[in-house]
Queue: 4 jobs
Job 1
Amino acid sequence: MTEFLYNVEDRKPMNAEERTLAIGVLRDARDLISPPGCWSQVAYARSSDGVSVGVSDPRAACWCLRGAVQRVAPTRRAEIHALVILLTHIEFVSRKKSDAQIGLYNDTHSHLEVIAVLSRAISDAPPCAVLDCENDAVHGQSCCAVHHAARRVVRP
């Protein structure tokens, strides 16, 4: 599953309202795929008989991590913001940068690990929640990674 999450316009920092909406999208996606039978690998969505279908198809019964976000997001912009938060967290955890990382993570980890990384992305979402934000020049790395690192330092 290769995915391209954003273009230059999507890299703009999100405001508080957009961030709140993105966190809500991640919560809804987690709720959607939390039941074990509602999670899928290798396809964005599958019907109850295992056939790959579109994420909004009425026959869809289970979704991958990326497909769940796409399914519940009310707008493309909200979807992108949610994916940026999620991707930032997965990149920080795995120390890898790749636009395909969300799909790769979903397809190479267990259901419990996928739910855990989604829950952690929700609880650890940094204030700026954007890749390559304008603070990168100051920090010399992803601003979100700096926020993640700072939050982890104070945790027991």
Note: The CA atoms of residues 13 and 49 lie 41 Å apart.
Job 2
Amino acid sequence: MCVFGATSELVAADDSALNSAEQLIRCGKYAVAEALLRDTSQDLAKSEHKNPSTLARTLNDLGLLAAYRGNYLEAADYYRRSLSTLEATYGNDGAESAQTLNNLASVYLAVGRIAESERMRRHALEIYTRSLGPDDPKVAAVLNGLAIVAVRRNQNTEAVALLRRALAIFQVNQTSDTVEAASIDNSLGVVALADGDCQGSRLHFQSTLVIYEKAWGPDNPQLIKPLANLGVADVFCGCPLEGVTELTKALNLAERVLGSEHPEVAQVLSNYAMALRRLKRKSDAKRMEKRAREILAQSSGDALGRYTVDIGDLARSGAQ
């Protein structure tokens, strides 16, 4: 479960503030985290002895929050600034650059720049493998990202191979019950659903939800995607009523914690409309599709895929 001190306890020291902000992000407290990160960024800008790693980490986390809002252009700008800060000090092959590269790759994938996304992720994989070894969990996070790229290319066999390689890393580290491993399980569910294995995909999504809810509680925004995924799987399994139940949960959670105009709400609405069409409720489906289009028209990132994929691959895998 997410536990952190009261806001008054979030001390101003740069690293402590960053640690607190990242804990707030894990707990789904995005607005509070962003305010803390912006204050930290301003303090660093005024400092004559700023630590490049701390500045880069702050910019990376601000990029993460912008991506969570669906503002991919802003996120990409933060990630590029983070990379520039690190490269000016450590060169372009430092281990600290790999996570931001992976994050920027996720943004590029979201806006359809698939080749660039894959190139960045392979660079991040090379850096992590060389600096941390092939069995580090950070390597698994990049493999998950590469698998998502493969899904976008309809290369599902390659995606499964990458995801099983990632799961093997968690097994080596005896961390198969972590949220990072559950993210891999969610991605396996996406591939299974794309391959027509709706029952297998349901098991993956259900397993993901159990671990996510145990770690974060029932109101964390990270639950939205696997909930919606489970709803889609139920629809494809011929159980649209069950699918509507899961999609209703996902939609209510998304609107409550992200706001009614968030791009993720639009994705859930699109999937909800698909379920309603299966139930012959065409007018309700059209209403939801119209609302989804309106939300996406206001977003900087109208490039969501047919199946929702866990955004957790954006998160700082190094945060504990």
Note: Confidence is low (pLDDT under 50) at residues 4-12, 301-320.
Job 3
Amino acid sequence: MTQDINNTRSDKMRERMFLLEKRGYCYFCEEGQTLFEKSPLHVGEYWYVTESDSPYKGAVMHIMVVPKRHITLPDELTANELVELTQKMIPWTRDNLNIRGASALFRFGDTKLTGATLHHFHIHLIHGVEKSDINHQPIWAVVGFQKPE
């Protein structure tokens, strides 16, 4: 299983996940991206940058940096993949998408714990606006689930 349909945030996402599961594709792998004619913003040797299909409410920009190779854990990354991520992909997003600052959310491991929809390691980069006053609302994202009280 490459998807966790229980964590989808929209009907459109749920429909895509059912189709991908039926075909045995991962949405972040080449077959899944081709199936939905998704074009990345930037492609490196080991990674690609894409817009989120379900951006978090209030985000000015919500992009994802995804390894081309299907892995589920960050410790599966090779030295070459890490170098490209930190030395090429992150700087590309900053320089070409005018991101002055962003929050990074790494998704990996058990989706029942993380709230992720895909069993494919990826990094969310979420860019908001400057906080103008004390009442300025934050961007909320599922990062896991609270333990019962």
Note: The helical segments are 11-23, 30-35, 79-96, 111-114.
Job 4
Amino acid sequence: MNIKITNYLYHGFNNNPDDGILKYTNNPKTLLVLDYIYSNRNMKNITPFSLEDIIAHCGLAVRSGNGNTIDQFKNILHTLHNLKVIEIENLKLTPKQFNKCKLLIDIDRDFFYFNEDDKKKIFDYKHGNESSIDKFKAFLLYCYILSRIRQNTDGTTGVCYPSYSLITKDTGISDPVINKYINFLVKTDLIRVGNAGLFYYSADKNKRVTESSNIYAIFDKHGDWQDKLNDSIKTYKNNHPERIFVKSYKNNNKSENGYIARITYLEKQGKATEKQIEKRDKLLEKKREIDGGENIKFTIKSLLDNPNNSDILLSDIYINQGNINLAEKYSDIEKQLDIIDGETGEFLIDWDYYKWLMINYNSDQHEYYYNCVQKYIREHN
């Protein structure tokens, strides 16, 4: 059975493309509340309900107390009422009390469908160690992809390609864990992901490479998703003529290359200073990362995504590989970021946040990432 949900949940609310109901409720369970209201409404758009029934519909137990299910769902319903998404007959909302609400928004104006069987795939999934997966967030992200596909107007069909920053803005799911939920949706055979690859802007003299946004398609057993991804990658490239897409990238920065050659010559003459050699070596490391056709970000991501490396420091992974130089480099970074308890040796941040940190870390922005770590520790400890 297909269930209709308003796109206003994520975007377009109040005729504002950047405004969504989720920004006000700040709870992924809002999606299932709207599902309940829409699925149980009558011809007059009135839905009979009790708070207890809605909580049970979400597969949760009725619990009282601050932050528990009763308060959570009360807050969601009160917020929907205040936003004039629904009108609740009795705002007291005791758990067993029979109540009614009227759906006030025109859901037929801007909507998407999800299939009830697909929802069950997410909430009934039990294979592997998925204890860290919030099924409500996974379902929220899946429906967001459906919503964005519905909104697509650029000539591609059955796909969408929101950036991680846009996903965070529209769903509230933080950047460091988005990839975890995307991988989960792939594992449950709900979506497939493609990417147009690396590119640099034609106006950029230094040809600095950037990663394209992911392209998402809904999985189907017939394999149509593969054609959709391939066609959309071609369309994506055609729609961005200012971008030069590359399989590998050669650093053509003449200033940097000239400096490397000059300091290497001076070193052979015994005339290069330690500071010059240090700067030359940093440029060489950067050049090797790019000229070798390997973006360090992708390398680190593949290492940390390997299940055999779960909960292992990147520096220790490189030690196990016998790469002492990189082991020392990332050991220094880990110490400078203060992510390890000096007494116990335990992580002060969780594994997913650590992965995000090491994949995206840039020494030029060390202070930013250090502050991110300190903020995370304050909020979670």
Note: The chain has a mean pLDDT of 84.
